[in-house]
Amino acid sequence: MSGTKCTRLTGALMRQVLESVDSVLFDCDGVIWRGDQAIPGAAEVINLLKKNGKKVFFVTNNSSKTRKLYADKMSLLGFNVTEDDVFGTAYCCAMYLRTVCKLQGKVYLLGSNAMKQELEAVGIQQTGVGPDPITGKPADWANVSLDPEVKAVVVGFDEHFSYMKLNRAMQYLNQGCLFVGTNRDTRLPLEGGKAVPGTGCLLQAVEAAAQRQAQTVGKPNQFMFDCVASQFGVERERCLMVGDRLDTDILLGSNCGLKTLLTLTGVNTVADAQEHLKSGRPERQGMVPDYYVDSIADLLPALRE
Ligand SMILES: [Mg+2]
To answer: What transmembrane ranges does the database entry give (predicted)?
Structure first.
């Protein structure tokens, strides 16, 4: 807006930015909660934004929950939210296959029950959820039985990921199936600085085996925003994206021409953003937010006025 990037959002500037937007998109983990704990003040921020007439949406790359499960979790934490406000990659991936790919046929799914449910909700059948134990020898694996109705391989978070699943995905992809991934986050951050491997690791394994690149639907791909905008008529120039990660949340906002706000309760720091800024490299400027706050609770004084 002012031409100065990565500015602390406070006082009059904060009121000005809030007045300049009608819609606010929030990432979830590291922004409104950490694990099962709400960020202090986050519920009040969301509820006041809505009370002040703003449209509020949640865009998360996590594919392990349905919209309904997210809305239930948010309600428990005191957020005034319905499932229509939630855009997780389980749902967005199903929408992508339906509306963009116009998929005719089944999905071979490396993913969760939540993804299975979201696919079924848009009329797409799947095979593959759950464990797939290995038997036989390599010659058997190369001739593993495949469902002829499968026309797409979809990779999301799959706690049962295994060698046989990797093999089966490769065999389907060798036949020319569509190849779609939920997201490329390589780590799932946990409390206390810990982390576990994320969907991006599984996706890279499948890409390496199949020697093909997947199309991903999650942030920073614009499809997440398109999904929200097509249903709720969000105006880019009057929309703010709030997130804790520069390479997914902030880059999505930049890719879509939204205002961007980094919150420091999650993955990235102001120093990370300034490094991108100072690099002078054009391809890194999309990861520099317009503004930052220590926590979204910093918005409270302006919202209470
Ligand atoms: Mg996050």
So the answer is: none
